[in-house]
# Entry
Amino acid sequence: MNNIPKVKIGIVAVSRDCFPESLSVNRRKALVDAYQKKYDAADIYECPVCIVESEIHMVQALEDIKKAGCNALVVYLGNFGPEISETLLAKHFDGPKMFVAAAEETGDDLVQGRGDAYCGMLNASYNLALRNIRAYIPEYPVGTAEECADMIHEFLPIARAVIGLSDLKIISFGPRPLNFLACNAPIKQLYNLGVEIEENSELDLFEAYQKHAGDDRIPEVVADMEAELGEGNKMPDILPRLAQYELTLLDWIRDHKGYRKYVAIAGKCWPAFQTQFGFVPCYVNSRLTGQGIPVSCEVDIYGALSEFIGTCVSEDAVTLLDINNTVPYDLYNADIRGKFAYTDKDVFMGFHCGNTNTRKLSFCQMKNQLIMARSLPEEVTMGTLEGDIVPGEITFYRLQSTADNQLRAYVAQGEVLPVATRSFGGVGIFAIPQMKRFYRHVLIEGNYPHHGAVAFGHHGKALYEVFKYIGVEPSEIGYNQPAGVRYPTENPFAD
# Structure
C-alpha cells in the first residue's frame, strides 16, 4: 500500500525589477541542473515564469506549478527578490514551502552579476512573518547552485511529512487500557494539524473480524507469513486467525479512509482482545507497519501520529517502543564497558511486546506473549513477534499534545548496540549520548508518556524541522543536550 506522499517541488525564481531578470533565471537553470545531476529529476519542476515584482507574474507562476502537479514549493531568490509577490506566492500555494537564496559566484562579476539575495532573504523572512506564513528556511539559506540543490533535497522529507499530515486519518479501536492515562489523546491539536480521526470500539472490530471467517484470501496471507517467519514460525496453527485479522484491518482501511489518502491505526491490544479474539495482534501490527501503515499499541493516538511522521521522513518502517528498563550492571560491564563510548546511564532497553517489523529484527520468533500469559491462559496469548532489534543508528522521537492542548515534541539521535539483550519481546539495547540528563529534563520534565517512536537512521535534522513547521514552538522541542549545556530545569550544583 502506498501510504506516504510522493513529493514534487516546484522551483520558482523571483527577481527585483531593478536587478537583471536574467541573473535570476540563469541561476535558476544552474540550480535545476545541479539538482538533476545529483538527485532524482522527478523530484522537481522548473517553473518557466520568473516573478519580477508583479502580482500578475505571481498568479501565472502559481497556476503553472499547480498545472504541473507540484505539491511543494521552493521560492528561489536569484537576486534581491520582490518581497510582496514572492510572499504572496507562498501565501496562496497550498502545501509546504521553502525559501532559499543564491550566493554570488565570483569576485570578477560584482557589478552586473551581483544579486544581493543575501539581503533579500532578510526581507523575505520579515514579510513571511507579517503575513503569518509558515515556510521552511534552511539553517544557512544562501548558497551556490550545488549547495541550494542539497538544501532542496533536505526539504523533501520535511515536505513529505507535512503533506502527509494534511491528508492523514488515524483510525482507533477502543479506549485506552485501564491505568494507561499516558495514552490520553487531546483531540483538538489533531484537527489543528489537519489530521482526521475515526474512533471505533473493539466490538466494531470484532464484528468485522467475524465476518472475515473463511475469507478465500486467508491461505495466501498465511503463505506470506510462513515465508516471512521462516524458522521463526513457532506457532503455525495461529496463522489463519492472524491472517483473518490482517485482512480485517486492511479492508477496514479501504472502506473507512474516506477522502483521506493516508492512514495510521491506534489499536487496543489488551486485555479483552486476547479472550475474545483468541490471540494477540502484535505480529499483524508489525506486518502492517512494514507495509508503511503505522500501528500503535494501547490506543496511543499520538504514538501512531509520531510513527506516521517518521515513516514519511525516513521512507522506511518505524516502530513504537517503551523506554523500558535499565541495563543491568553485570550486562553493561560484560558487554558494553570499554567496547562502546557510553556510560551505564547512557544506555537503556527499548521494548514492546512484538510490534516491530521483521526487517528491523536481527532474528525473530512468532510465539506467545509472556507478560499476558502470567494472567491469561497461554493459548490466547499467541501471536507476538520476538527478537533483538537490528543494531545501527536510530532516532528516538515523539510528538505529543499536553492536556491543555499544547504541542510538544522531542528528538534524540543514538544507536542500537550490537549487544544481545538476553530478554524477551521486540527489544534492543539503546545508547543515546547524555541519556541520563535527557531522561530527567526532557522526558520526565516534559511529562511525556512511556512510548517513543523509533526511526531507523539519523533523521533528527528533518524531524526537528517538521515539528517546527507544523507549529511546535522551538522551546517545546526537547533534545539530548551535550555535556556542558545546561537544561533550564537542571540543578547547576547536581553531579
